[in-house]
Amino acid sequence: MKKLALFFLLIAVFGVGLVAVRFRSVAPPPSAVLINDTVMTVSAMSYEEIAAAGPFLTAQLNAAFREMDELRESRDQAMRRFMYLFIAAFALAGVAAFMYCERTILLPFRRMKDFSRSVAEGDLDAPLAMDKQNRFGAFTESFDIMREELRKAVQSKKELVATLSHDIKTPIASIKAVTELMLVTTADEKAQARLNTITAKAEQVNALITNMFHATLEELQVLHVTPEECGSTEIATMLTNADYEGRAVIAPIPTCLMVADMLRLQQVFDNVISNAYKYADTSIAIKAYFANGHLVIDIQDFGKGVPDAELPHLFDKFYRGGNKDKISGQGLGLYISHYFMKQMQGDMVCENRADGFVVKVLIKLA
User: Fold this and answer.
1) What pLDDT, in 10s, does the model give residues 230-258?
2) Among 294, 276, 278, 121, residue whose Cα is nearest residue 286
3) 359/350 Cα distance (integer angstroms)
4) 214 pLDDT higher than 90
5) Of the N and C termini of the chain, which has fewer Cβ atoms inside 10 Å?
6) CA-CA distance, 298 to 250, in Å (whole number)?
7) What is the pLDDT of the chain when averaged over all its residues?
């Protein structure tokens, strides 16, 4: 800023100096001397001499006055030209000053504003750009250090959640195994009902922990999907494993080669059928057919379906529909399943039908 003020001061001093040099007092012009001499001469002449020399003196004075007028006009024009040049120079100086302020003050502040918005939106990976001309270097660097520390803290939190989610699944699996063993060895109907309740709740907790685990891994960018060529002969078994309540009627699966990650595909079927249990609580019909280069698995329940306005949002992260009341969930099952299918070059589609709701799992053919 000191340089900028000095720049304007130099321009002002330069302008005033030019005015002083250009228009300082100088010797009178010849016309002014002539007029003065004529007046002095006339004052010394008699009336008769003035009358005799009148026409000559008048012409001489008129010529002198015309010369004075021309000289004054010339000086006025020079003054106007100088003022125009001075105003133009001052305007250019103003533009230069604005560009200087824009580059050294306003631009760094705008960058910090955009950076703050990105941090508020959760983008902690993009550093704050800085350059040698930044007048707020230490201030800007502090902001970037804060971003880096926040990024490390968020990363640590995600890793902690992923670790805890993974570790919790082990005792849940033990509870399920013990409960299943007790069901086999217990004949009392009341005890069996309680054990069935424990099993259902354990399945529910396991599904929630799985969703949380997968969501955290996805945010950590370690939710890997490895599609490869494989046969469709295992799909019937995978669907049967997902149908742990035995409500599904599974039609024959056509034999073909497809592109899939079988582990992730099993998780997709688990999520879709689990949702059918929770939200429809009906039997399930599963059929398979070929369409547009895909093996399509239709998984249909016979519940009330989903409002049409909610259909476009079913694959959104954390979205839960209007039928979520009294039903636990995190809004991650379909989101993760859709992510898996996209990574396998496939897709998922949800639609209402007159007799229920269907989820189409589209598996890419090899």
Assistant:
1) 999 999 999 988 888 888 999 999 999 99
2) 276
3) 5
4) no
5) N
6) 10
7) 77
Tell me: pLDDT of 363 over 80.
Answer: yes
209-247: b (≥16 Cβ within 10 Å) or e: bbbbbbbbbbbeeebebebeebebeebeebbeebbeeeb
Three-state SS for 336? helix
Alpha helices in 137-261 (DSSP H): 137-185, 189-219, 235-242
Helix (H, G, I), strand (E, B), or coil: what is residue 328? coil
Residues in Cβ contact with 327 at an 8 Å cutoff, skipping those fewer than 6 apart: 278, 279
pLDDT tier for residue 27 given thresholds of 50, 70 and 90:
very low
Cβ-proximal residues to 289 (8 Å cutoff; 6+ apart), any chain: 254, 295, 296, 298
pTM value is 0.49
In this predicted structure, which of 3-12, 85-94, 275-284, 349-358 has the lowest mean pLDDT?
3-12
Q: Which two tokens stand for residue 143?
A: 């902001």
Q: How many residues does the chain have?
A: 366
Token pair, residue 226, equals 């490895």
Is there a contact between 288 and 273 (Cβ–Cβ < 8 Å)? no
Residue 4 CA to residue 182 CA, distance in Å, equals 86
Give the residue among 224, 216, 226, 221 at the shortest CA–CA distance from 168.
Answer: 216
User: Which position has the token pair 């929630």?
Assistant: 208
As given in the structure block, the two tokens for residue 185 are 């060895």
